[in-house]
Amino acid sequence: MTSEILHRARELAPVLRERAPEIEANRTLPAEVVELLRGTGVFGMCFGPEWGGPGLTSMEQTEVVEALAHGDASAAWCAVIGANTGIYANFLDQQVAKEVFPRLDLVVAGLLQPSGRAERVPGGFRLSGRWSFGSGVKHADWVTSGAFLYDGGEPWAAPGSKHAHDSRQFLVPRDQVEVIDNWDTTGLCGSGSCDYTMDGVFVPEEHTYTFATPQGRPGPLAQPDSFTRAMCGVPLGVARAALDHAREIAATRYDRMAGRSWAESWRVQTELARLEAEFNATREGVYGAMRRQWEVLAAGGTLDDLTPTERAASPLSWLHAFRNSRTIVARTYDLLQTWAINRSSPMDRWLRDTTVMAQHLVAQDRILQSAGAYLLGGTPEFGISLGLV
Amino acid sequence: MTSEILHRARELAPVLRERAPEIEANRTLPAEVVELLRGTGVFGMCFGPEWGGPGLTSMEQTEVVEALAHGDASAAWCAVIGANTGIYANFLDQQVAKEVFPRLDLVVAGLLQPSGRAERVPGGFRLSGRWSFGSGVKHADWVTSGAFLYDGGEPWAAPGSKHAHDSRQFLVPRDQVEVIDNWDTTGLCGSGSCDYTMDGVFVPEEHTYTFATPQGRPGPLAQPDSFTRAMCGVPLGVARAALDHAREIAATRYDRMAGRSWAESWRVQTELARLEAEFNATREGVYGAMRRQWEVLAAGGTLDDLTPTERAASPLSWLHAFRNSRTIVARTYDLLQTWAINRSSPMDRWLRDTTVMAQHLVAQDRILQSAGAYLLGGTPEFGISLGLV
Amino acid sequence: MSAVEWAGPPQDAAEILRRARQVAPVLRAKAPEIEANRTLPADVVELLRGTGVFRMCFAREWGGPELTSPEQLAVVEALAYGDASAAWCGVIGANSGLLGNFLHRSVVKDVYPSLDLVTAGVLAPAGRAERVPGGFRLSGRWSFGSGIKHSDWVTSGAFLFENGEPWAEPGSPHAHDSRQFLVPRSAVEVVENWDTTGLCGTGSCDYTMTDVFVPEEHTFTFWEVRGTPSPLAQPDSFMRALCGVPLGVARAALDHAREIAATRYDRMAGRSWAESWRVQTELARLEAEFNAAREGVYGAMRRQWEVLAAGGTLDDLTPTERAASPLSWLHAFRASRAVVNRLYDLLQTWSINRSSPMDRWLRDTAVMCQNLTAQDAVLESVGAYLLGRPPMFRISLGLDR
Amino acid sequence: MSAVEWAGPPQDAAEILRRARQVAPVLRAKAPEIEANRTLPADVVELLRGTGVFRMCFAREWGGPELTSPEQLAVVEALAYGDASAAWCGVIGANSGLLGNFLHRSVVKDVYPSLDLVTAGVLAPAGRAERVPGGFRLSGRWSFGSGIKHSDWVTSGAFLFENGEPWAEPGSPHAHDSRQFLVPRSAVEVVENWDTTGLCGTGSCDYTMTDVFVPEEHTFTFWEVRGTPSPLAQPDSFMRALCGVPLGVARAALDHAREIAATRYDRMAGRSWAESWRVQTELARLEAEFNAAREGVYGAMRRQWEVLAAGGTLDDLTPTERAASPLSWLHAFRASRAVVNRLYDLLQTWSINRSSPMDRWLRDTAVMCQNLTAQDAVLESVGAYLLGRPPMFRISLGLDR
Fold first, then answer.
1. pTM
2. What Å distances lie between residue C112 and B40, C100, C184, CA to CA?
3. Which ipTM was obtained for this model?
4. Which of A266, A268, A274 has the most B C-beta neighbours within 10 Å, making it the best mutation to test the interface with B?
């Protein structure tokens, strides 16, 4: 089962590469591309055997994402986000989860950071607000959104909560949100990461959840960081694609001014090798931290059973993957010089894709701050990045 | 007169280079080396014509320091510190200055940051404390030290002062301080930057001063930042020396494994050129900012007449000079590979010298913080680096 | 918005610089349109023409303002502060006045009846020129002809052939000589293949010629000065001001970032960006790097100008000084691009939308760094020169052919 | 302090690793003495011997523990956590067991009557071996013989000569063949020329031999496996664990910096270092870079081991996988050094005194990065290999001679 999804992802990659200009131009995934992704089984890859799903490990998931990103970054981005459905299922009431996800290939999109306002009403909440960067929201089946809770107009927290103001996730059908067509980047264009709004949408209590309380079977995919692990497969897949592309191009070029083939050029040889070294280290850094974490979690442990160094290693490896992949792409672009600049070269797209991607929260300096503060006994700004909830 | 000091400094450089191992081993400048420096006139270079001095501009001073550092970093470091005598003279009562500096080639050393405690007594202060990093203190004639003021045991500030607790500089004869022999680094060894202490030393009022109040002729060398400008000549001189050395060595080496001379090697050609580019930019960055600043100050303006960008440019260029020179040395070391590692290669010493030097306050991140905060309207931690007193 | 009106052509450097600064905001506003057009719109060309940038290199003997290289650089920086593509076409178009120093004196007035005409074209020899009575028949395809669509004249490098055989002048150091060929714009066919996402507006298309007759007197080389000797009548002079484009963009990005940063508040961290160590130190670090890169260019240029203006030649510079110029150009390109990249990251998601100029500057600087002046070949050549070996790319050092 | 007592030689990887970790603090305490001595003091050599590091590569058929490459690497990291020079000599000395796979089976027991003997020497052919009856007469000078002073045997690369003429085996791909020559330590003359300020304690002196007779059966090459085939009987196996030295040092520096940082207070800024964005982000960034460099080594090594242990050869790896190993070693050296340099800066003046280990680590990593495995020649060779061209430095790829 595992290898089947990976196999299909690899088979789909060249198709995605071909459709990349169309995906870009569309500024969100074309419906047909969504169906192609669905056909690989990627959207269901996080559902465990208890759901009849394939239950891929985080390492296996990341490999699938890398394979898709080797084809197209936006498609892979939407795939990894859509694949989180099976992770959210672990935090919902299990009966409700079965109802909202009658099939394993439905897509949930949305912004998890609490940005909206949920007023308590009988049986649930009335939800309003505006959420940014809702990647894949246009083709989603459900939308999950973070929001702060209010009761009678006042900020509300559960008795004994460690927060002054509690927040939760709210799952609503896609047709209840209004998408604002404001995703207008030149990188990762096809992710359709638009803002969306809701105004007084009723959400029943049982469609709300938090990542602090798993309700499904405990396990490595019922952890507060589960849904961020495989994202870095996107930059890694793009970087690998760029390196492969560069090796292929370099093998065919001749430098007339210097009177030697590129394959004989110190510049090309050393830079290509240096970038391989950096890519390998970056990628192994991700998988190494992930394997260690999985080992502990699969044995029934929690993130607290990791040493601080091991625990910090995961979010740091993701950030590192985003940043180094982007650097590798930029340097590969320079390696190919004017062979990179034309829109017909995938380097042009990859440069823009990795640049935009690297602005995502998981690659921001605050991750460094939080991990460093955690290691030093200081105050992390963004504890959730370490699974500190 | 100007060109005479520079000329002598250049002539002295090879002598200093030869004595470098001895200077290192001695962990402070040998007396004979101090006299060689004195002979160049460097200790008097900041005294203006009104003192019968040569009145070198900051640019000219920096060139002298670069020339000495081309020979030996520790000697140049002590030279630029000793040369500040002529700058301190601008902040002392002019009659007192003439008494304490009867000749123009005396050396003042000491730590300016307020670290000690000065209790007000009739006619002056009783000064106690421990000061760190007193470069050149062993061969100094006078010692200047920052200290906080106390009156009747209580922190004291002048009426109307913007500080809660005022500090001042205290000038004492060298024999009144106790030097602690704790300078034990492997870089910049010869600077003898030992701690020193004083315990209840009486300092008459007229031997105290602050950089906020020039008492000599106003001008570019009577500014709160005057004494930090030429320091970056030390790393710049070392980096230039390393580049010259590498070019010389590279021109003679043959790579047997590759079957080509180093002069024909892409590795050597491109790296040497890249380092020249970085060195030139770094150095011109210093002189460009300095020239602009001098132009404004020499016309009777103050630092406030510079645009914020121009004002920030000076301390940033110094930091940049320290850091980039060190990087250039480290990369030159790598360029020469095993030809750099033996103690007989100056690269070994330069690597250690520039590493230690780069820990000086002028090269620390807080300079970046202060300049950035200044440009953004935030709060500089260390305003004096921008001449904000 | 485009209604910038001036009374007649500018007379001196100060006036050209003033006008360049004045059009910069107009260019900034037109940037999306410039991008979309993939070559400079006609009204933008006229805007540039009005600043005097196209005439800035013309020697006084032809009635030109003859800006020094540092003055030219400042003009280019000012234009690039508005739009990179426009500045790029500005500095390329300004080559007309430089070519005037190498053309036969007899034809300069005919070729350039106005000082505001634009010359475009590719100098590296790529075509083939067959000697015929009175001149040559020129054919070939040249790549990256920035600004060619709005140009008046096109200059192109080509190898010389006589009766189908490679030809070199007796005593030439080369086995096969090349020259520049100046033809009217109408003589060339433009290939519509400039399709980048950076520096889009330069219209740096390929162009071809087939059997175009070029009279002998419309040919020249950069090794034979026919005008009055001057610091601008040097083989490297047309490369000097190009790096004003990345420098102008980097300055614009620094100013933009400072402005944005001063207004942002980080809710997660609970402090304003102005009080954030991250923002403070990174902004300061980038100022330091930018200043150094920029002063590196001006410093090398001033020293070179000083020697040349005193009647010296490039050979009167020390090897280190001579190497400093091409190295400073490369460094300016690369450092400016790094500054833009890091500012993009500094502003995080405030950079990614197409409405942010950071998005465009990122693409512009990535593409411009692929220009020959910013390639490793320059490092290799300068390094070889410093080590006493023959450099491959000699013109960047102004080395005699 | 040096009284570390163990009951007999260790029997397996876990025990060797445990002992290595146990001696690390002792080595750290002795580091100043090791430095000052410019070669390992005798008691430090015995300390290492006691850990079993020198025997760790011996195959089971010789009674050795036959650690896998990842296990060896972990041992080296653990030693380097204590002292870089000691770890360097540890991994070099451990070559005895690897050479056992290439020596004639008949002599292994004679040469290594104990598994704890140390082999030092320089593998790159630098000397000259003249064929004589029964063997060779060897002369030459070899550079950088780390650990030679305390070694029992010395192996040296040399070119073969017959009657004064360069000699190659019929069918050899080389015009001139070379081999390794194993001689007792007493046969070589050590030149006292190791005078660095980093990695001081390795005593990596030059050594010479003049006309030393080496019997045929004490010669070997890395292309002919004479022991049982195994993942360690490969031409590249002696290079694999060396990068444990920089990795161990970098880990030590990271831990040291974290410890120091947790206790410092910045009076000028008015906050503890633990709450400083500068310290937090830089420490985290360096953890990320270290982890990646280290996992890069283990990842490539695991994949290689998997293939070799299944009976495959290096040719069964994809080119990308095969290139990954030497690249990961180089990267480990360079990244570790960068981590140390940046931690030195992070701690500012808390690093500069000789009493801080940062001072030593700075010098150690600077010198070790000049080792061939960390030089650009590796990048060049691996790049050439990936592009289908003949690499210069073949052994790092385990390419057949």
1. 0.90
2. 58, 9, 11
3. 0.87
4. A266
